[in-house]
Each structure stands twice: as structure tokens, then as C-alpha cells.
Design a protein that fits this description.
The complex is a heterodimer of chains A (373) and B (130). Chain A has 373 residues and is of the alpha+beta class. Chain A has 8 helices and 19 strands. In chain A, 20% of the residues lie in helices and 33% in strands. Chain B contains 4 helices and 9 strands, in the order βββαβββββααβα. Chain B has a 6-stranded antiparallel beta sheet. A 3-stranded antiparallel beta sheet of chain B has the order 4-6-7. The chains are: A alpha+beta (373), B alpha+beta (130). The interface between A and B is medium-sized, with 17 and 12 residues.
Chain lengths: 373, 130
């Protein structure tokens, strides 16, 4: 995560005062004042893996498009193929520049045949809004519903039990990367079986004024299950253990989806889209570097921006790194030349001027437990 | 409230020193470990190394942050808490006990006068606190 120096006042989610009252440590993130931890990052991380955690991710942006050309516009803007999506399905996708660099990564919801929602990164909302409204014109209307939407994530092996207890609809019928609409604690919600942790769970999109009620009701309902509020600190270590990319850290406008291991969401066969030619050129030529997952051979913490070395010579850069509380190892991600990207490849991370041995490993670092039924 | 034992002396950088004859045991304070959050890595000097008052003698890392450790006193390192390499979280659990870091045979007893008393350190963290 990158702290940004505030020039404009930090934005607040509808739950900001609730977090402060709960004793959370607040930090700036992507222009937002967000809770980084409540009890402690490792404790919260383990609560999600063991039981269930509740996250306020209302800083994320939601952009909707509706109209007869909505599918065509989405197909032109996004790299993945949205055509096979039925209403009620979700898909991971990317916005790319004509040059092939990544504008943002997102989850795409097909709300209806002619209506979609893009959930985008908090720090990119304004940029993405300009991008989609400029490049996504046609017989359809864009709406930025970020401010009026709150988003709570309930993640962990006990998430389904907790949400089901409060929901008026059968959640066992909602598979991974699908959503339904219903009420949770009496609050109308888009209930999506998605997340950023590698655990089963839901993301609940609701009207911002109802966030506080739903937050407290979820905490009460999950008390016996060991539910805990979870901050951005643990969100970061949880996603790192899954090798999920974080925009601004692991991917950005200078990275190709193919280098980042995101070729699986680039579908050139669907027809033209922004960035297609450039990405296909990279594919034909072969990527020069790859985003790998590595672990430290000896205890040492790799961090964003540290240099990756091979036999002492700089070959790349660490994009994310930390102690992984569930794998109980020091792990990281970074770009290295393709020739050094194979599992088992031996590298070094330069930490305070000293090369520390590291090894490319299979990822995810921690096995995913999402319900892929 | 962070614990500040009365029988220790403190630095502005949140280390403590406990005088044991011509030696001093050194660690970081309860306030420091709270501010850092979960400690996941501690880098300490080897026995025999020389440390200088208010210069870095090592590093403590939490999930989010890297912090230098500053020596309260100059002298020779005569003991190192090797357990912290395996269990860095001990610094969070017991900062004044099992979480000690090094023992220094100090070179100049006059340096002890430059350290803060518990009362002075309490004032410092009250001012720095939220």
C-alpha cells in the first residue's frame, strides 16, 4: 500500500467515525482516510483465515453503464470477454491504454442484459471515470455511483453462515463470482460471492446511509463465530498470500497484463478493444519480464521498491512484500527477466545494502479456499 | 496506557536501558511496540560489536514499517537475544522482559545521565500520544 501525501482533504467512507470510535488506527490510502488495523494486522489476518472478518471497503468506486450499447462499450473498454456473462455473473477484468499498459483492474458485474457495473480501485475513481466516459460513448449512459454506495466485505470460512443468518435469500445458490439481490439485516443489497482474501465470502453493496446499521448488525450476528473488523493492513497481507495484484504496487500504466500474469483476462478473440494490438504484439514477441512470487531463504522482510538482484547485479524490483502470517514465511512479488522467472530460480533482495537470498516459488503462497463449485 | 517501569531509563527514540552493574540491558518500550504493531523481524548486532550512544545498532520491522534501533549507551555488546530471530513477536508480548534485545558493557557511566527517567519518558509519550 502506498501512503499519499494529502494535498486535498482525505475522503471518508460512511463508516469513518465508527472506525475511530472502535479505536482503529487511521491512515491515508489512495486519497482516503482508512482503518489500517483495529487489534493488530496479524490477529486480524488470522481471524479471516480461521473464522470471519468484516471489512469496510466503501472507498472502492462503482461505475455503472446502462443502455442498448452497454455491452459493446464494455467490450471495447475491457480486456476480458463480457459477452458470455449472464445477468448475475461477475468477472475480473482490466482497462488498458492503447499502448497496452493497465489503467486499472476491476470486477465487472452484469446487472442486466443492457446494464453493467465496474468496481474500481479507490485511488483511480476519477481517472477511470474520465477514461470510460471519454472512450466509452454510445447509446448508453454512465453513472458514477461511488459516493452513494457503501461496500462491506465479509470474508472467511464462517462468512456464509454469518451473512445467511441475516439474509432473506438462499446464499448456497450463489456460486463464486456470482451475485444476487436481497436484503441483509433488512438492508437491500447486491450480494456478491467475491473477495480479495482467498477465502470464501461476500461483498455487500448497499446504500451508503445504511452502512452503519449493517456494520453493527454483522458484528453482532457474527460474535459467536469470532467475527472481527479487519483493516487495510490485513487486507494487504491476505491478498499478498494469494499473489493478487494491487494496483499501484504490482501493476500500473507501465505494466503489461501479460507480464503481470493476467493474460487469462485478455481475450483478443472477442474482437477489438483498447490495447489489444499492443498486447498482442507483446504476446507475439514474448514478455521480457514476469511478475513472480518469491520467498526469502533467511528471515528478512522484502518491501515495495527494494531491488531484486541476480548474483549481485540488479535485475528487477520488489512490488509487494511482507511477512505472510498464514504461510509464516517472508514473501514477496516482483518483476524479473523471463529467464529468471521459473519456480526454483535463485535471486537476492537488496535489503539495507545487503543482498539477501530469495527463491521463486509456486503461487498462490497460501492455498485458495474459495468455493469454486 | 503504555507501561513505563520506574526502574528503567529511556531514550527519546523509545528504547529502555536497565543498569545491571557495569552492563545495561536494552530493548524497546511498550509504547514503541504498540506504535509499531506486529513485530515480524529484528536485526541485532553480534556479540563483540561496538555500539555508540544514539546511533543505530539494529532494526525492528513490523508488518507495515521499518524502524532503526538506537543505542542508549556506548560500549561493547556482550549478549544478544537470539530468541528474537525465531520469535520476533516476543517484542510485542513482553517488551521489558523476554523481548530484551542486547546487553552492553557500557564505556562511560556519565552517559547514563543523558537518559530519561520513567517520569520524563511518561511525559514524552503523553505528548506524542493520540
Amino acid at each position: 500500500m502506498t501512503d499519499t501525501t494529502a494535498i486535498t482533504p482525505l475522503k471518508r467512507t460512511p463508516l469513518r467515525d465508527v472506525h475511530v470510535k472502535a479505536g482503529a488506527r487511521m491512515v491515508p490510502f489512495g486519497g482516503w482516510e482508512m482503518p489500517v488495523q483495529y487489534t493488530g494486522i496479524v490477529d486480524e489476518h488470522r481471524a479471516v483465515r480461521r473464522a470471519v472478518g468484516l471489512f469496510d471497503i466503501s472507498h472502492m468506486g462503482e461505475l455503472e453503464i446502462e443502455g442498448p450499447d452497454a455491452l459493446g462499450i464494455v467490450q471495447r473498454l475491457c480486456t476480458n470477454d463480457a459477452a458470455p456473462l449472464a445477468a448475475g455473473q461477475v468477472q475480473y477484468s482490466l482497462l488498458c491504454h492503447p499502448g497496452g499498459g493497465i489503467v486499472d483492474d476491476l470486477t465487472l458485474y452484469r446487472l442486466a442484459d443492457d446494464r453493467f457495473m465496474l468496481t474500481v480501485n479507490a485511488g483511480n475513481i476519477d481517472k477511470d471515470w474520465s477514461w470510460v466516459t471519454e472512450h466509452g460513448q454510445g447509446r448508453a449512459r454512465w453513472r458514477n455511483v461511488s459516493d452513494e454506495t457503501a461496500l462491506l466485505a465479509v470474508q472467511g470460512p464462517r462468512a456464509e453462515g454469518v451473512v445467511q443468518r441475516l439474509a432473506d435469500t438462499d446464499l448456497t445458490r450463489v456460486p463464486y463470482y456470482h451475485f444476487t439481490r436481497g436484503e441483509v439485516a433488512g438492508v437491500p443489497a447486491l450480494i456478491s460471492r467475491t473477495g480479495y482474501t482467498g477465502e470464501d465470502g461476500f461483498e455487500l453493496y448497499i446504500a451508503a446511509p445504511r452502512a452503519e446499521h449493517l456494520w453493527h448488525t454483522l458484528l453482532d450476528a457474527g460474535r459467536a463465530d469470532g467475527i472481527q473488523p479487519v483493516g487495510l493492513g490485513a487486507r494487504d497481507t491476505l491478498r499478498l498470500e494469494m499473489k493478487f495484484a494491487l494496483y499501484g504496487n504490482d501493476i500500473d500504466e507501465t505494466t503489461s497484463p501479460l507480464e503481470a500474469g493476467l493474460g487469462w483476462v485478455v481475450k483478443p478473440a472477442k474482437g477489438d478493444f483498447i490495447g489489444r494490438a499492443a498486447i498482442e504484439e507483446v504476446r507475439a514477441r514474448g514478455v521480457a519480464r514476469k511478475l513472480v512470487g518469491f520467498e526469502m531463504v533467511l528471515p528478512a522482510v522484502p518491501r515495495h521498491g527494494y531491488r531484486l538482484l541476480k548474483d549481485g547485479a540488479p535485475v528487477g524490483v520488489v512490488t509487494s512484500g511482507s511477512f505472510g502470517p498464514s504461510v509464516e514465511r517472508y514473501i514477496g512479488m516482483g518483476y524479473v527477466p523471463t529467464a529468471l522467472a521459473a519456480v526454483g530460480s535463485e535471486l537476492e533482495v537488496e535489503i539495507r545494502g545487503k543482498p539477501q537470498p530469495a527463491r521463486v516459488v509456486r503461487t498462490p503462497f497460501y492455498p485458495s479456499r474459495v468455493k469454486k463449485t | 496506557m503504555s507501561k513505563v517501569p520506574a526502574d528503567l531509563q529511556y531514550t527519546r527514540e523509545h528504547e529502555w536501558a536497565k543498569v545491571e552493574g557495569d552492563r545495561a540491558r536494552i530493548g524497546i518500550t511498550d509504547f514503541a511496540q504498540e506504535q509499531l504493531g506486529d513485530v515480524v523481524f529484528v536485526e541485532l548486532p553480534k556479540v563483540g560489536a561496538r555500539v555508540t550512544a544514539m546511533q543505530s545498532f539494529g532494526v525492528v520491522e513490523s508488518v507495515k514499517a521499518v524502524s532503526d534501533l538506537f543505542a542508549p549507551l556506548s560500549g561493547e555488546v556482550v549478549e544478544v537475544n537470539d530468541e528474537l530471530a525465531k520469535k520476533p513477536e516476543t517484542v510485542n508480548v513482553d517488551p521489558y522482559g523476554q523481548g530484551w534485545m542486547i546487553v552492553v558493557k557500557y564505556a562511560d557511566a556519565k552517559e547514563l545521565d543523558t537518559l530519561m527517567s520513567a517520569a520524563e519518558y511518561e511525559k514524552l509519550i503523553a505528548a506524542a500520544g493520540r
